[in-house]
Every structure is written in structure tokens, then in C-alpha cells.
């Protein structure tokens, strides 16, 4: 709309430029035609036109403008160039008006895409009697070129004006419209990262965007409430199940002394207990950084914490005749709330059950991350299964007959996410599987 209004305003200006150039040229040459009309009055009466022809030739040579004089019978009596045809449309119209004593017509505008001469005629009169007419055939090429230059400057000015309007009006309006969309995009990313308490502002927005923001906030609130109910359900279920499971275990322990079959029930009770414990753990670690808010403890040296936990695992692996290799242990500070023991227990337990020895544990640095790696030399996982590692209750098709809950790596992933970390599963060179827990390095940590 702004561009259309600018173009509409420019059209009259362009017409003014072309018309003004035409009028200026017409008035300038009209003065010369009046002079010739005055000079032709006596020769037309006396019939001596030699001097009149000579003046016309000199004028044509000087101004490159042909001149001719006609009598009252429309006959050419003197001309600067031969071959004048008074029947040409423009000349005939001009002579007809002039010899009839009428005012000259308005000259046409000098548009640059047109061509042609301008005909200027003035009557030769004596005491009110028309004796003839002086006619100038004025070239217009130079004037049209000047008009073209003026129109180009006008077009440039139009473009600059449109640019200024866009920068001064349209751009702020666009930002007013686009910024809420950017806020929605950022809020969506926050939601996908687990920050379900994220909301967008709807103040000062366009009505449509305000409704969109309200709908987004309602959706985020519903998700937050659903997740909160899920946590509460899992926490309540875990709490309610823990007591009867403990009681059942006590009773079955007593029966196990009398019946070997009871030992299998005891094993199932223990398995249920582990499932309840892990569900409770997941319910409290869904939101990244939830436990880290307001924490002011000193950073935790991940390598030192891993080495301390490996002391017990060496004995477990040795008892099962499995080889446990301790690789590089590079010191690196991480968030103190990271549950290193739980993470390492899951990774080493999975490696012993689903992988094959030797199992290698290392702690290294990679840029701004501290990496805890556990590698086994088993069959590993296919590319499709690698993408599902860490999903709740997911287990590879090769391992479904083996004991497990499918929650271990989900807990590891949640623990890493709580401190802004991530879990990466990949096939190493030489076969097997590597699980990497990558957590942010705390820069101000001192070795």
C-alpha cells in the first residue's frame, strides 16, 4: 500500500516535469517566432523577401531550427530549408489556428520515449489584418533527454523514499509482528528441552498473535500439569509399593529356608524393588537442572569420583572372572549434584550383562565437556538400536530374554540432563559398544 501511494504521488510529478519542459521550450521559441513575424510584416506587403530569407537561413544555422514564412494564402514565401510541406498534420494545424487568428494550442508534453518536432507559429499582422505567419520547426531531442534525466532522478528519489518508509515504518511493524513468533519459537525449544514452566508474553501483541500466545501458554500449562501428575503418581506409587514389597521380602526370606522355590520369588521381589527405586529416581529427574538451582557446592572431580567407585566394581568383576580395565583418568570439574555412583553402576552392570570383556572405563576431556566412557567388546548394537538407547523400558531384541528393566540407561540420560549433559552411544573401532556420558566442564575448576 505504501509503495502504491508513492507511485501514485510520483505520476503527477513526472507529468509536471514533461509538461514544464514543453512549455519552457514553447515560450522560448515563441519569442523568436514573434520577432520573425515582426520582421516579415514589411516584406510581405512589399514583396521584397530576400532579406527575410537570409535572416531565416542565419537563424537556422545558429540554432538548428528551420524557419519559414507563409502568406495569407498559406503559400511559403521564404524558408531556411527547401522542401517545406505545409500539409503535414502538425504544421497544418498550427497554420490553420494562426491564420484564423486563434490562440496557439497547448504544446504536448515532452516524454522521453516519444519523438518529433515542436511547431511554433506566430501571425504576421498589420492593423488587425493577417498577412501571413512565421513558423519555427523546433527540434526536441535535447529537451527530451533532459526530461529523461529528471525522471531518472525522480525514480531514484522514489526508491530512496520507499526505502526510508520501509526502514522507518514497515520494518518496525514487521518486528512487532515477527518478534512474538520468535518468542514462540524460543519457548517451543525450551519446552522440548523439558522446561515445561516456560510461558510467552501476550502483552502488546496483535490480536491474532495474542490468541496464539494464549493457546501456547494453555498447551504448555497442560503439559506441565500432566508431567507433574505423572511425577506425583510415580512418586506415590513407588512409596506405596515400597512398604508391601519390604514386608513380602521378609516373609519370603523366611520361606526360602524351607522351599527352594521361594528363592525364585525372592529374586522377583528384588527385581520389583529395583524397578520401583528406578521409577522413583526418574520421577525426580525429569526436568533438566531441577536439582542444580541455587546449588553453591564445590565442583566434583569426575575422575576422582569414578576411581573411588571402581574400587568396589573391581572386586565384583574379579568375582565373575571378568576383566575391568581402567583407562585415562583426566581430572575435570563437573556439577556436584551429578550422581556418579548411580551412573557408573548402570553402565558397568550393563557392560557385564550384555557386553563381553574386557570392559574399559575412562574419563577424558573434549573441549568444554568431561566425558565418562564405558566400553565393552560384545556384539554391540545396530544403527537403528543406537538411536533408541536411553528410552524408557526399551531393550534390544538380542537382550530381551536377559534380566533387566529397560530403565538403567534412561536413568543415566536423566542424570546427565539434570546438569546439562547428554548420553552418546556409538560403535567403536574393533567392535563392541561405547556409552559416553558427556557433562559440561566447570571452567573455574582447579586441579
UniProtKB/TrEMBL annotation:
Residue ranges of every copy of the HAMP domain listed in the record: 175-228
EC number: 2.7.13.3
UniProt-annotated location(s): Cell membrane
Any coiled-coil regions, as ranges: none
TM helices/strands, residue ranges: 151-170
Gene Ontology MF term list: ATP binding; phosphoprotein phosphatase activity; phosphorelay sensor kinase activity
Membrane topology type: Multi-pass membrane protein
Domain of life: Bacteria
Catalytic EC class: transferase
Catalytic activities: ATP + protein L-histidine = ADP + protein N-phospho-L-histidine
GO CC annotation, single: plasma membrane
Domain Histidine kinase, chain residue ranges per copy: 236-443
UniProt key word Nucleotide-binding: yes
InterPro entries: 2C_sensor_his_kinase (IPR050980), HAMP_dom (IPR003660), HATPase_C_sf (IPR036890), HATPase_dom (IPR003594), His_kinase_dom (IPR005467), HisK_dim/P_dom (IPR003661), HisK_dim/P_sf (IPR036097), Sig_transdc_His_kin-like_C (IPR004358)
Swiss-Prot/TrEMBL cofactor(s): Mn(2+); Mg(2+)
Keywords: ATP-binding, Cell membrane, Hydrolase, Kinase, Magnesium, Manganese, Membrane, Nucleotide-binding, Phosphoprotein, Protein phosphatase, Stress response, Transferase, Transmembrane, Transmembrane helix, Two-component regulatory system, Virulence
Main location as per UniProt: membrane
Protein's UniProt name: Signal transduction histidine-protein kinase/phosphatase MprB
Organism of provenance: Kribbella albertanoniae
Amino acid at each position: 500500500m505504501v509503495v502504491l501511494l508513492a507511485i501514485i504521488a510520483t505520476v503527477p510529478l513526472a507529468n509536471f516535469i514533461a509538461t514544464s519542459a514543453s512549455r519552457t521550450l514553447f515560450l522560448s521559441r515563441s519569442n523568436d517566432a514573434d520577432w520573425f513575424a515582426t520582421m516579415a510584416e514589411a516584406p510581405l506587403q512589399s514583396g521584397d523577401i530576400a532579406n527575410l530569407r537570409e535572416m531565416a537561413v542565419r537563424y537556422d544555422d545558429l540554432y538548428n531550427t528551420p524557419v519559414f514564412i507563409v502568406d495569407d494564402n498559406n503559400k511559403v514565401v521564404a524558408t531556411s530549408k527547401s522542401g517545406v510541406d505545409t500539409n503535414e498534420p502538425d504544421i497544418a494545424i498550427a497554420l490553420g489556428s494562426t491564420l484564423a487568428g486563434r490562440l496557439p494550442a497547448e504544446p504536448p508534453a515532452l516524454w522521453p520515449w516519444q519523438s518529433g518536432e515542436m511547431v511554433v507559429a506566430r501571425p504576421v499582422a498589420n492593423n488587425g489584418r493577417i498577412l501571413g505567419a512565421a513558423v519555427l520547426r523546433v527540434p526536441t531531442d535535447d529537451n527530451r533527454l533532459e526530461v529523461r534525466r529528471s525522471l531518472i532522478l525522480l525514480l531514484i528519489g522514489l526508491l530512496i523514499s520507499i526505502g526510508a518508509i520501509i526502514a522507518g515504518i514497515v520494518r518496525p511493524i514487521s518486528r512487532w509482528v515477527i518478534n512474538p513468533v520468535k518468542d514462540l519459537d524460543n519457548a517451543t525449544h525450551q519446552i522440548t528441552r523439558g522446561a515445561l514452566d516456560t510461558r510467552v508474553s501476550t502483552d502488546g501483541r496483535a490480536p491474532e498473535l495474542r490468541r496464539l500466545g494464549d493457546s501456547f501458554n494453555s498447551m504448555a500449562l497442560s503439559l506441565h500439569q500432566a508431567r507433574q501428575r505423572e511425577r506425583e503418581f510415580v512418586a506415590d506409587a513407588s512409596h506405596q509399593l515400597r512398604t508391601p514389597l519390604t514386608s513380602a521380602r521378609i516373609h519370603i526370606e523366611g520361606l526360602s529356608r524351607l522351599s527352594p522355590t521361594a528363592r525364585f520369588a525372592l529374586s522377583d521381589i528384588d527385581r520389583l524393588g529395583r524397578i520401583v527405586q528406578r521409577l522413583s529416581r526418574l520421577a525426580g529427574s525429569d526436568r533438566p537442572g531441577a536439582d542444580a538451582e541455587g546449588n553453591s557446592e564445590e565442583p566434583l572431580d569426575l575422575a576422582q569420583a569414578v576411581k573411588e567407585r571402581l574400587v568396589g566394581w573391581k572386586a565384583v568383576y574379579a568375582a565373575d572372572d571378568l576383566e575391568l580395565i581402567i583407562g585415562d583418568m583426566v581430572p575435570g570439574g563437573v556439577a556436584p549434584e551429578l550422581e556418579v555412583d548411580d551412573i557408573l553402576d548402570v553402565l558397568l552392570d550393563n557392560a557385564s550383562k550384555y557386553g563381553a570383556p574386557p570392559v574399559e572405563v575412562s574419563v577424558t576431556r573434549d573441549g568444554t565437556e568431561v566425558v565418562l566412557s564405558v566400553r565393552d567388546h560384545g556384539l554391540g548394537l545396530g544403527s537403528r538400536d543406537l538411536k533408541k538407547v536411553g528410552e524408557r523400558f526399551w531393550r534390544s531384541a538380542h537382550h530381551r530374554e536377559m534380566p533387566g528393566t529397560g530403565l538403567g540407561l534412561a536413568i543415566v540420560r536423566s542424570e546427565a540432563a539434570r546438569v546439562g549433559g547428554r548420553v552418546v552411544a556409538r560403535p567403536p573401532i574393533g567392535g563392541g559398544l561405547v556409552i559416553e556420558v558427556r557433562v559440561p566442564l566447570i571452567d573455574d575448576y582447579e586441579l
